[in-house]
Amino acid sequence: MQSLTPKQQQIRQRESRILDLARPMIASGGISVLSMDAIAAELKTAKGTVYNHFPNKEEIVLALAIQAVECRLSLFNRAASLDGSPRQRVAAIGIACELFVDRFNELFRIEQIIRHDAVWDKTSPKRQALLRDCESRCMHTVATVVRDAMACGDLQTQQTHAVEDIVFGLWSLVYGGLMLELTSPSLADLGIENARRAIRRNCNGLLDGLQWQPLHDPKPYERWIKKVRTNLNQWLDKEHKLGES
Q1: Which residues of 225-242 are buried (b: 16+ CB within 10 A; e: fewer)?
Q2: What is the pLDDT of residue 2?
Q3: CA dihedral sign of residues 183, 191, 165, 225
Q4: pTM of the predicted structure, to 2 decimals
Q5: String of b and e for 74-94 (b: at least 16 CB within 10 Å)?
Q6: How far apart are CA 244 and CA 166, in angstroms?
Q7: Contact 71/123 with Cβ under 8 angstroms?
């Protein structure tokens, strides 16, 4: 890989610094509280310099959303690589989703903002394509585990779009459930005291309905979830230390 010139390194470092400053602003109050003036003041530079990197606030939100999905992709890939049956590995990816929300809550909140048309429509096609590619790779990781289950006989289906349907079903249950956990004030009124437990129960219900073997068994499942959380947390801690060195 070709090394960056000092000028290119400076540009990349400044862009990274802009995103670091913008992230807590957006996470705490949305795009309306994002201030190019405040970022420029913190960087001790002209506001025009910030605009040289990002033409508008929406582009900053999209850049952070890409960071979010890239981070989730790394967690997905780690979870999918763990030793275990395909059913265990797909459960591990679900736990990776939970850990992403727990440990990168600001990024998860920002990711919701980019879904609004008023924000998305003001961003560049180039960065939009990057986000789509990251999301596709996340879903490809899940689809690979589903195909592994089919290949080894744990999951048998003749449906033409079975893999895509299963991936979308799990994505809807997990991502949608975690988003509701974050944003809905009425879950307790609906009798949902523990959203994570409900999400896992619904995912296992979906997979059991497909006869994905082995069928859900609470005790070994809970042991596996505990093991996965420990593994992924330790891996994240190590990755952060390497990034800081």
Answers
A1: beebbeebeebbeeeeee
A2: 58
A3: positive
A4: 0.91
A5: bbbebbbebebbbbbbbbbbb
A6: 38
A7: no
